[in-house]
Structures are given as structure tokens and as C-alpha cells.
Amino acid sequence: MHDARVVAARILVLVPAGAWVLLAPAALSPYLLIIWCYALIFSIACLGLNLVFGTTGLLSLGHAAYFGAGAYAGAFLYRFADIHSFEVYFLVGILTSTLLAAGIGFLCVRATKIHFAILTLAFGQIFHSLFIDGAIFRLFGPLGWALYLVGEGSMYIPRLTILGIEFEPEEFIPAFYYVIVFAFCASVFLLWRINHSPFGKALRAIRDNQTRAVYIGIPVRQYRWYAFTISGVFLGLAGALYGQLDRQITPEQLDWLFSAELVLATVLGGTRDFIGPVLGAFVFIGLDEIAGRWAIGHNIMMGLLLMLVVFVFPRGLAGTLDLVPGIRKVGLLMKRKWL
Amino acid sequence: MSLLRTQKLVKHFGDTRAVDGVDLIVSQGEFLSLVGANGAGKTTLVNLISAYLQPDSGHIFFQDQDITFLPVADRIKAGIARSFQLVNLFDDLSAFDNVALAVFSREGKTRNLFTLAEKDDAVTQETLEVLREFGIEDKRETLAGGLAQGERKLLDVAVAHALRPKLLFLDEPTSGVSTRDKAQIMDTVSSVVRAGKITAVIIEHDMDVVFKYSDRIVVMQEGSILADGSPDEIRQNGEVAAMLLGAPTST
Ligand SMILES: Nc1ncnc2c1ncn2[C@@H]1O[C@H](COP(=O)(O)OP(=O)(O)OP(=O)(O)O)[C@@H](O)[C@H]1O
Ligand SMILES: [Mg+2]
Hints:
Number of strands of chain B: 11
Helix content of chain B: 25-40%
Order of helices and strands of chain A: HHHHHHHEHHHHEHHHHH
CATH superfamily of chain B: P-loop containing nucleotide triphosphate hydrolases
Bound molecules: adenosine-5'-triphosphate, magnesium ion
Low-confidence stretches of chain B: none
Radius of gyration of chain A: 20 Å
Strand content of chain B: 15-25%
CATH topology of chain A: ABC transporter involved in vitamin B12 uptake, BtuC
Helix content of chain A: over 70%
Low-confidence stretches of chain A: none
Largest sheet of chain B: 6 strands, mixed
Order of helices and strands of chain B: EEEEHEEHEHHHEHEHEEHH
Oligomer: heterodimer
Strand order of the largest sheet of chain A: 1-2
Structural class of chain A: mainly alpha
Shape of chain B: globular
Largest interface: A-B, 27 and 35 residues
CATH class of chain B: Alpha Beta
Number of helices of chain B: 9
CATH architecture of chain B: 3-Layer(aba) Sandwich
CATH class of chain A: Mainly Alpha
Largest sheet of chain A: 2 strands, antiparallel
CATH architecture of chain A: Orthogonal Bundle
CATH topology of chain B: Rossmann fold
């Protein structure tokens, strides 16, 4: 009885979603496919951020650094080690962002609340400035410096080989799309597990009441650090995908404005629901596209659209959708006995 | 046998001698009440023993081991747990999760990243058992922030109890609740403590409650121990009784 409804809800949600995901390269124009890819990548980043933000209760304004590190690391590797494999580029990106997040996080979790936000912002901006003034490029000698002067800190990446296969230019995005889909599904799955693990619950406990968390024996600072580092893994993963999708990495992706966009999209979607950041990311990218139709006043349009969404969905998209009976029902059935 | 012993414990806040050379002994298995007027230093004494504060001087021994400089985590592992004078819960988590977290933590399972919390049947069973003992099992899905004051007080004690401590400090578990709830809370708490053979130190202002439930009573005044004895001895100590009954009640 029960189970039949659970299965029905899953079919209702997963079959159309799966069909759409598989058919998107055929159904969308090349331009829209890129936007769709970007939305998937952006939602991985927002989900990663939310492990620190919504779950642990720490507002980071410096997450662009880990996203950028994920994108840049492989670009340097390609330039200076002449490696053409996407897999290597990808893993090096994740490793770099994870180490960076572990290092910066170690220092930042010493503070909480606004002090934490300021620290993350400060470290993020220091990292950004290393790219803006070229200090990072100097590490690679005259060649690196020349690269900086030519690109003003931005870097170009060619289409790399995926699983050893070299794709034709027009085939590349449709093929890479499936890599992104796979990374998205894997990220959602892993973060979902973490969120529903005893560790995930401990993070919520820390968010709600630090003192009491200490008094039930939770190592608060250590767990904050773990959350920050894990978050860095997913930001780096998203950044590495982004670098290959856009093939042009600029210091803009490191700027705190991008960190703020991540926070904005996450809040828009709802920080307290697991799937909120994904909804927020998609809507944010969608609004940005719509606003982009106005050549002049793009930012004003974006601002107005964001305001509209915030007024219509004061509890965040996920929270408000949860009030719609049909959606709520399906959502509950989806959650039940999952895995 | 003494479970806990403090030796000339001192904590001053500026000119305030909150705890001023206290030698307290807590024996294995007893239900001890710590009483005294507002500002007598009761909470500060518990804060020192639970590592919420560091003493200016003096020592704390637990099972004959000097724990004066042990951090909180180690004191919890050793078997010391506490509740708080102002309710201190995870307000956006359910009553169930509040208790379950204490169980997960005690079992060293909060490091598990990829196991599903709700699939842990042993923890689920134990959590439900604790909620049942405290009579709040039917509230398990309610967010702690949405519980009534009496239920919050019980949950606060339940979370500490779920750590299965040897020594449990309860700082005014009945403050801010109606007289009727007070009796219910104290009945529940004392039966849980006695059933679990836990040594309990309870801070309480209501002398009716104190006389009814305690094995022993320690009276504090201005940071020092003024009297120490059985309920009968304290009742017969005219000076102390007058001071206690004249004191302002619950904060
Ligand atoms: N963190 C602190 N900073 C400064 N003074 C403090 C601090 N904590 C307690 N005090 C002071 O120390 C004294 C003892 O306070 P304490 O809270 O231990 O009393 P108490 O016996 O628990 O009182 P109550 O019955 O009102 O809870 C009081 O004068 C109080 O103002
Ligand atoms: Mg007190």
C-alpha cells in the first residue's frame, strides 16, 4: 500500500527528470545547453556552500576562492606540464581546492558569526589579489609572468580529452554534459548522505547551540573544520567543471562578488532544505538569463527579479514549495525509505 | 566512597567571591541538593566542576583522579554530565534528535560521514527508551524550540542523561514551571536517577522539593559551604532553616 505510493512518487519524479537529463543535449540549442550545464555546476557549488552555511550555521563570504582554485589548478597544470587529460585536470583541481579550504578553514573556524564571515572574506580577497596582481603567475617564472601579462590573469584551457577520447569541437559540449550530469548526481548523493549521517546531525547541533554541543561531547571546532574542508571539495569540483565548460578562467571567478552570488542563490532556494540550494541555483541562473535579454540595465533587471522572488517566496523556494499540498506529499514520499 | 571531591576551590569575578574555598564531597550513589540564596555561587561551582570555567585555585578530584585541568570532552568521557539553568537545547532539531545526538556522541559515532543516522537501530531504540523514561516520547517529532517549558526542562535533563554519566549535575531543573509540572518533573528525574543508580547533584530553590527528594543537602552562602547534612539535620538547624526559608526563591 505504502510502498506502491512511494514507488509511484518516484516514478512520477524520476522518470521525467531522467528522460529530460538524458535528452537535454538533443532538446536544447547549443547555447541553452551551456546555460543548463552552468546551472548544474552552480548548484553543486551552492550545495557545497550550504554544508557550511545552512547546516553548520557559518556564513562564508570567501567560497569563490575554492571554486576558482578548482578551475585554475588544472589550467596551470595544462600550461606547465602539458597534460591534456580532463581527469587529471579535474582531480588536481579538487585536490588543490581541498587543501586550500583545509588550510584557510583551519584558521577561519577559530571565529564564529560575523567574525567568521569577515575572516573568510579576507582570505578570499587575499587569494583573489594574488591572481589580480599576478603574484601566483610569478611562481612559474618568466613564462608564467608572460602568461599573466597576455591574459591579465585569465587563462585559457583547450578542450581536454575525456577518458582518453578527443572530441570534435561540436561534439564536445554534448559529451562533456554527461560528465557534468554524473558529477552532479554523485555530489547530490554524497552530500545527501553526509547531511543525513550522524556527522550531519552533529553539524546542525553545532549550528543550533554551540555550548550544548560541547557538553554532549562534540568536538565543535574540529567538526566545523571538517565541514569547511568537505565544502571545499565540492566547490573545487564545481570550479574544475566550470573551467572546462567555459574554457576561459578569469580572476572574476575568485572575487567576493561571486561568493556573494553563491550565498544569494542558496538563500533564495532555502538553506534548511537539502534540495533548496539546487532550486536556488537554477532559479538564479534562469533569472540571470532573463535579465541578460536587456542589454542595458542587466544588473537592474536582475536586482528587480531577485526582489520579486524574495517577496513571493519569503521562506526560500524549497520552504514555500513545501507548503503546496501536492508537492509536499510527493516530497515526503520521495524521502521515505530512501536507500 | 567519594566520587567527586573539590579541594579549596576558588573562583572570583573581580570583587565577587563567587566560589571561595569550597571543599565539597559527593559520595557514590547519593542524591545531593545544593541550595542557597541567589548569587550564593551554586552555578559557578557546577561550572567549575564541568569545565565551563577554570578555577583561580584549588583542585577537583573525580574517582581520585585530579581533573582540575582536564578539558570538557575528557570530563564528559570520565562520566560527568550537566544540564543548564537556562534551558540549553538544539532548538531547530526534534526532541528525538536532541537525545539521539547525545547517544551518537557517547558512542563515538558522530564521525560517521556516510552512514544514515536513522538506520542505526540501536541508537533509535535507546533514544526512544530515554524519551519514554522522561515521558516525552509522544513529542519526539516536535522541534525542541516548540516544546512547552516543562517539556523543555525534561528534555534538557534527558539529553544529559543519555550520555549515561556517573555523575549528573542538574541546575534548577524545575525553574520557570508551574507547581504541578514541578512535582512531575522531580518525580520523573528522581526515578530515572535512582533507577540508573546515578549520582546526582541538583541545584534547587524550592525547599519542599529539596527536603522531599534529597539524601543530603549542602547549603552555600557567599561562595562558601554554610551547612552540610541530611534533610533532618538541615531542618533542625534553626539558623540555616531561617536563612533558606527567608531567601528569595527561584531565579
Ligand atoms: N561570568 C560571570 N562574570 C561575573 N560575575 C559572575 C559570573 N558568573 C557569576 N557571577 C557572579 O558570581 C556570583 C555567584 O553566581 P552564581 O550564578 O554562581 O549564583 P547561584 O548561586 O547560581 O545563583 P542563582 O540562584 O541566582 O542561580 C553572583 O554574584 C554572580 O553575579
Ligand atoms: Mg544559578
